[in-house]
Amino acid sequence: MMIVIDTLIQGILLGGLYALFATGLSLIFGIMRLVNLAHGDFMILGAFAVLIGVDAIGLPILLSAVLAAIFMFIVGYVLQNVLLNRTLGKDILPPLLVTFGLSIILQNGMLEAFSADTQRLNFGGLSEASLPLGGGLAVGVVPLMTFGSAILVILFLNWLFYRTETGRAFRATSDNPEIAQLMGIDNNRIFSLAMALALVVVAIAGLYLGARATFDPLIGPSRLIFAFEAVIIGGLGSFWGTLIGGIVLGLAQTVGAQISPEWQTLSGHIIFLIVLVLRPRGLFPRHVD
Amino acid sequence: MSLLTTHALTAYYGDFQALYGIDAHIDEGETIAIVGANGAGKSTLMAAITGRRRTPSEMIVFDGRAIGGMRPADIMGRGIALVPEGRQLFPSLTVEENLMVGNYGRKVRGPWSLERVYALFPILKERREQASTSLSGGQQQMVALGRALMSNPKLLLCDEISLGLAPAVIKDIYRAIEDIRREGASVVIVEQNINQALTVSDRIYCLLEGRVTLTGRPNDLSADQISRAYFGG
Known about the structure:
The structure holds 2 protein chains of 2 kinds. By secondary structure, chain A is mainly α. Chain A has helices at residues 2-32, 39-55, 61-82, 93-114, 141-163, 165-175, 177-181, 187-212, 220-234, 239-259, 263-278; strands at residues 130-134, 137-140. Chain A has a two-stranded antiparallel sheet with strand order 1-2. In chain A, a hairpin with a 2-residue loop joins strand 1 (130-134) and strand 2. In chain B, helix 6 (137-149) packs parallel to helix 7.
């Protein structure tokens, strides 16, 4: 019995990590219909950015993460403004090709800069800390922080999208960029801001990705798959849906791993395929477009 | 004084020429109507003025500045608002959010505010929390009109605002246009319905195949003249 509860708790907490992976991807696709194939590699870049702050400069990890988030914000804004905005149009192929190219450039750039060694982000004493839940159950502090961060990120994004003028501009641009311009909304600026925000979430995802397991410059694409699966299971267009998608994926993987270690990733993919067959628009689609 | 002037304005879609040297102007406080059949170039003219079709800068002068080729957001910021054909509300925004997004790029003091728009169209206040797509066609047209007013434009462009609406609703919409005129904005009405255009405007321009075929004050034009200018021949 305890092992069932433990598995469920671990699965849900892992879902928080996948929700962080997926939220940036969902944000970008939702606003500008851009599928960022370099999303996974940006998460790894975020993890390395945190690592540099900790290892090379000697900063506390959370301060380093804040600096990494600021760095990624700037990277996102400039990248969108200088490069990706030029690829957006009626055809969805150019941005796909360009982000695919970016993915390769990022992987090889990081390989050159950081070598192929596996790395890990260390939360110091917190890494091993856990909270006892009674009955022999315990949850790790870092997984709890991960899940809490996912909730905070989604609360913040929902507030931004539904309570602020910038959020209205995001949604209006997402609905109809041509008409949004007639409201005085500068599409390029809005898209750049959206990418900057997405990469801040990516930096947070990178922090917890590096804390949970080892990473190296080439593992981005395999993490991108989880992000895609969480987005699609949850249904496009709702951040809470993305969290649920992450949790479903996390649960499937932890339950699979209990059956047999090699079933971990596979059971996630199987659940994803089942959802895709039964509910092609995901569990919580926002609206029909 | 002339608020907006076009000088030999041309526009192309690839090899196809949609406008052949349009010379038109509108004075401050004036209401003009642009009539013409489908494909006469009315919507292209609106697209050029609002910056969605790029044109050489000197072809369009607004408020003493050449604005041709400026980005749509910058043109809107200078005080030109469009009520687009087909209303084009933002489906994921509520009625009130649709109105509020209307002054995103231009926040100036003027006669129009959320309260004033609600006073003009009380039904919208009742429906403010609803999705804009849940409204009737006439109510959606009110939202589109209110959204454009929110920026207190100097020039309001109304593209086919009576299209697809019931006669009673069209009357309501045009009564609102009268109120809008009284607040001082210049108004351009683009219409396929000639009678509607003649009733509401100080002057009309008739377009045919990308050219101005007739212009004048409604009282000075005969039905026969208009018919020939509208249909050709």
